[in-house]
Structures are given as structure tokens and as C-alpha cells.
Design goal:
Elements lengths: L1 H20 L12 H4 L1 E7 L3 H12 L5 E7 L1 H9 L6 E4 L2 H9 L3 E10 L1 E5 L10 H6 L3 E4 L4 H13 L5 E5 L2 H10 L4 E5 H7 L3 E2 L9 E8 L6 H8 L2 H9 L6
Parallel strand pairs: 1-2, 1-3, 6-7, 6-8
Antiparallel strand pairs: 3-10, 4-10, 5-8, 5-9
Helix pairs in contact: 3-11, 4-5
């Protein structure tokens, strides 16, 4: 009975193959099913979220693979991957964090993607009445990034370079949280990336020496990720993607 059952399955399979061969050449060139196209998971710095949202739409115009994004502080993203979180592409906000990912053995093929710098952003209506960055840095309800994350490291470097002092009431784990507190008025001011201020229309004050402290974001492939991630990483470095990044104020390395 086992042989008969096996033979029946073989005959049925042969019939299905025969039917498939009669469907014509058109089917051979049709788009693959969604499950064959796959899904690419990208862990990206929070400061890139708005630009990447638009880039995902551009990608969808000519690619079948779906994109899944996870945004956050670069250090936290690397921690998650080290702990086994599944991802295919990593994009950090600075070189230091990417260097750590490479040293930990979870990232490879790192490449510079964009540059950015810091500004002092004011809450709507400038409730603190600040006229200079120096006043805001020493004023009430200042919010900055924590020193262990890229925007925080850059802030400390800028303070050392300019000789300015600051008195923050809180330190956040990513620039998006800093920006959110400024936008909501929970903070009177905060140090954020130039691109974050521009994308939300916040008024800014220039911090002396800010042009000399430039952060560079990096892309890399996650070591144990799906090889399909390489196609998206390459797309991020294309002329098409560059136009979108430029439109959000990101510089070219």
C-alpha cells in the first residue's frame, strides 16, 4: 500500500508539471509571489527616519522586496543585533557606533552615507526668550542627547571645542526624543541635528563651532543577515537615493 500511495503522488505531481508547462511563456516572465520577493529588515538611526520613509516609497517603485524599518538610538540598535535581533542592514548615525558593530562581528562592508551637524533648536514661541545659543545652553529646560549616543557624543565634542557650558535637565537616548520634547514645549530648547530641526520647522540658533563638528552616518550589512540586504544597501548609495537625502539637508561624505 505504501508503494501504491507513493506512485499516486508521483503521478499527480507529473500531471501538475504537465499543466504548468502548458500555461505559456507569459507566466515565465510574471512577477514572483510576494513571499519569494522576501523582506529586508533595516535597523537605522532615528535621525534618518523621515528621509528613509520617502526612500522606501522610491524603492517600492522598482523592487519587489518589502522593507521593514526599526529606528532608534544607534547604540541601542547595535546592542539589539549583538543580542540576536534579526536584521539585514544597519545604518548608524556616526562612525564610532559602526566601528563597535564591526568590532563585535555583527556588521561588515561599512560605508559612509551622509553627514550632519548640530544646532540649538527652540520650542515654538521661544518661551525661554533666548537670543543666542549661549543663553539657551545655560538656560532653563535644556534637553540634549545622552553622551553615549552619537548626537550626545557630538554635543560634548562641540562644547569642548567652543568652550561653552550647558545645563541640561534631561539626556535622551536618541535625537527624536529630544526633538519631541522641544516640539511639545516640554523643553525650552535642545541640541539636535540640523536635519531634524529643518524637517519640523523649528527655529534655531547657531552654536559656535558647529560646522567643525560633523557626524557621518554609515551603512553596513549585518553579518548573519539575508544577502538580499546588500541590494538595499547599494540602493542607499545610488544617485536616486542621494537626491532624496539631499532634499532633507543631509550632506555628502
Amino acid at each position: 500500500m505504501k508503494w501504491i500511495r507513493t506512485a499516486a503522488v508521483a503521478i499527480l505531481a507529473a500531471g501538475l508539471v504537465g499543466c504548468a508547462s502548458d500555461t505559456g511563456a507569459d507566466d515565465a516572465t510574471s512577477a514572483p509571489p510576494a513571499e519569494e520577493a522576501g523582506n529586508i529588515t533595516i535597523f537605522a538611526a532615528a535621525s534618518l527616519e523621515k528621509a528613509f520613509t520617502e526612500l522606501s516609497d522610491v524603492w517600492a517603485e522598482s523592487h519587489d522586496a518589502e522593507l521593514t524599518f526599526s529606528y532608534g538610538g544607534s547604540n541601542g540598535l547595535v546592542d539589539q543585533i549583538v543580542e540576536g535581533a534579526p536584521a539585514d542592514v544597519l545604518v548608524t548615525a556616526d562612525a564610532t557606533t559602526m566601528d563597535r558593530a564591526v568590532e563585535e562581528g555583527v556588521a561588515t562592508d561599512a560605508r559612509p552615507l551622509t553627514t550632519n551637524s548640530l544646532v540649538l533648536a527652540l520650542a515654538p514661541g521661544n518661551p525661554g526668550g533666548f537670543e543666542t545659543a549661549e543663553e539657551a545652553l545655560a538656560g532653563e529646560r535644556l534637553v540634549v542627547c545622552a553622551e553615549e549616543v552619537p548626537c550626545g557624543r557630538a554635543t560634548l565634542q562641540l562644547m569642548e571645542l567652543s568652550g561653552l557650558e550647558m545645563s541640561p535637565v534631561s539626556q535622551e537616548q536618541n535625537v527624536t526624543d529630544v526633538r519631541g520634547k522641544i516640539e511639545s514645549g516640554e523643553a525650552n530648547s535642545g541640541v539636535i541635528y540640523r536635519t531634524d530641526a529643518a524637517s519640523t520647522g523649528l527655529d534655531i540658533l547657531r552654536i559656535p563651532g558647529a560646522d567643525e563638528v560633523v557626524t557621518t552616518s554609515f551603512t553596513a550589512l549585518v553579518t548573519d543577515g539575508d544577502p538580499a540586504g546588500a541590494e538595499f544597501a547599494e540602493f542607499l548609495h545610488s544617485d536616486e537615493a542621494r537626491e532624496v537625502l539631499d532634499s532633507y539637508g543631509f550632506g555628502t561624505p
